[in-house]
């Protein structure tokens, strides 16, 4: 890499999310990194999303930050191309496959019910119900909540179906997590009910030397709810010496 070239930061959004999730971080870090937000298109598996992302990164080495489903994609990138990965940040996310038995069936039924709502009543109507569990209670029906609904509405039911298929068939990433050899950030909103803090504490314990950051007064959408705190956590993580290629 040219000595004057800024390092590359790959930013991976979550389910039904896009560039809006990372807007504040991209702007704040623009002088420090070249950032790239991935659009998964019609990809319907975590592996396909990871391969699509890898195909769009021109730099031979890079750092990756993934939010929610994007964290699972980041872990798949770590499995597919560990030699390219300098740092990894896993935010409001998880590592486990779908549960076996009744718990897994309940998850599938819940996700399919949301998809049916999206097909019958539209993406915004689905988002009105689903996104209420994604933010701190004080942010319901605020301009921020409206921005989240607008982001969901930019996707289609077919994209929703593809991403749900990917999540239902998500791989077990616990082994990948344990094998990480680069600076690793685990970040979670204190009030994240979807990907709770206890899960991130477990992930943190599996990666020696990793950093755990708890974002106060935030639900699942931490990058949008508390952008300054998330940006500072990313800046501190980016300041850690990168693993050399």
TrEMBL record:
Entry GO MF terms: hydrolase activity
Keywords for the protein's UniProt record, in alphabetical order: Hydrolase
Alphabetical list of Gene3D superfamilies matching this protein: alpha/beta hydrolase
AB hydrolase-1 domain boundaries: 9-232
Pfam families (UniProt xref): Abhydrolase_6
SUPFAM superfamilies assigned: alpha/beta-Hydrolases (SSF53474)
Protein name: Alpha/beta hydrolase
Lineage: Bacteria, Pseudomonadati, Pseudomonadota, Betaproteobacteria, Burkholderiales
């Amino acid at each position: 890499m040219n000595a004057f070239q800024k390092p590359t930061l790959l930013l991976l959004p979550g389910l039904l999310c896009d560039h809006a999730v990372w807007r504040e971080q991209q702007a704040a870090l623009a002088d420090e990194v070249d950032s790239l937000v991935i659009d998964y298109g019609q990809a319907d598996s975590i592996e396909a999303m990871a391969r699509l992302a890898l195909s769009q990164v021109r730099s031979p080495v890079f750092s990756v930050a993934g939010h929610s489903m994007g964290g699972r994609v980041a872990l798949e990138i770590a499995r597919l191309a560990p030699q390219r990965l300098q740092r990894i940040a896993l935010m409001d996310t998880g590592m486990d496959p779908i549960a076996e038995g009744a718990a897994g069936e309940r998850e599938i039924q819940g996700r399919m019910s949301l998809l049916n709502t999206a097909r019958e009543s539209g993406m915004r109507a689905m988002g009105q119900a689903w996104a209420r569990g994604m933010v701190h209670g004080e942010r319901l029906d605020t301009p921020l909540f409206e921005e989240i609904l607008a982001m969901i509405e930019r996707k289609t039911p077919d994209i929703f179906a593809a991403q749900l298929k990917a999540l239902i068939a998500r791989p077990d990433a616990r082994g990948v997590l344990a094998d990480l050899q680069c600076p690793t950030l685990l970040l979670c909103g204190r009030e994240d009910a979807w990907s709770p803090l206890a899960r991130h504490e477990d992930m943190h314990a599996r990666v020696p030397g990793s950093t755990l950051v708890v974002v106060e007064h935030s639900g699942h959408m931490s990058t949008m709810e508390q952008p300054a705190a998330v940006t500072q956590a990313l800046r501190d993580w980016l300041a850690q010496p990168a693993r050399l290629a």
